[in-house]
Known about the structure:
By secondary structure, this protein is of the alpha/beta class. It has two domains: 2-212, Rossmann fold (3-Layer(aba) Sandwich); 221-275. The chain is built from nine helices and 13 strands. It has helices at residues 42-49, 91-102, 107-115, 131-143, 161-176, 188-194, 212-219, 231-245, 266-275, and strands spanning 2-9, 22-26, 31-35, 55-61, 64-65, 76-79, 149-153, 180-185, 197-202, 205-211, 223-227, 250-254, 258-262. The longest helix has 16 residues, at 161-176. The chain is elongated and about 75 Å long. The protein starts with a strand and ends with a helix.
Amino acid sequence: MLQAIGLTSTPRRDRPPAVDDLTFEARPGAVTALLGSAGSGKTTALRLMLELEPGRGITYFRGRPLHRIAHPPREVGVLLGDIPGHPSRTLRGQLRMLCAATGVPASRAEELVRTVGLTGLERRRIGTLPIGADRRLGFASALLGDPHTLLLDEPGAGLSVSESAWLYERLRAHAAGGGTVLYSTADPKDAARNADRVVTIDGGRLLADQDVTEFARTRLRPRVAVRTPQAARLAAAVTQEARAARRPVEVVAEEGNRLSVYGTDCAAVGDTAFRHG
C-alpha cells in the first residue's frame, strides 16, 4: 500500500504551496488516478512522494519511506516526463544502462523489450522514436526492477486510442497481480474509464477520494453547488418539486451547509430557493 501523509511543498516567494497538506492512499490490487487540472499540483505531489521536491510530509511504500528502502527501483517504478538519456543512444543501450544502474541483469532489458512490444526497434536511437514507442520505453524503464508500486505522471498524454488502451491494459494487469498503481491525469473521463479509485485535487489540496463508481456518479455529471444556512429546507424543496415534475434531480448534502444538486441548472435551483423563501 502507498500512504501519502501531509504532503506539503515548500512555497516560493509569496505564492501558496503547490501541494498543501495532501493525504491519501493507493491500495494494492487497484489502479488509482490522481486527477487534477493543469497546475493543480499533481506532478509536485508525485515528486514529493519520491523525495525529489523540498517540503514536508511523508510517503510510505508498504510501510517504509523511500529513503529506508535498500533498493528503491525494486519497490517503486517511476515514469515522470520524458525518458532520461542521450537521444543518440539506442533503445537497447538505454535499457541496458538502466539495468546496470538498477542492479538487475542485462537480460531483463531483452525480456522487457518483448513484454512492451518494442521488438525490432532495439537499434533505433531514442531521439527518433515515435511517441507511442517512447512511452513503451518509459514503461519498460519503470518495470526494470520488477517493482511493487508504479508511479506515472500522465502516462497516456499524447497517445493514440490504441496505444492508450495498450498502456492502461498493462497497468491493470500490474494491479491484478497484486501491485499498486498510481497515475496522474487531467482528464476526468480517463480516470472514470481506467481507474478503480479517483483522488481529485485542486490547488494542491484534496477535493475528493472516491471509488470510480461514486466518482462517475457525482463528478462527471453537471452539478449546481449551493451554500445556504437553510440547506435542509432547500434540499427538501428541490427534491419535492423534482418528484412532482418527474425530473431526475438528485440532491447531495455536503459539509458546511453546502448542497450539490445534479440534473438541473442554477436558474431552476435559484427559482426554487426564491419561491420557498
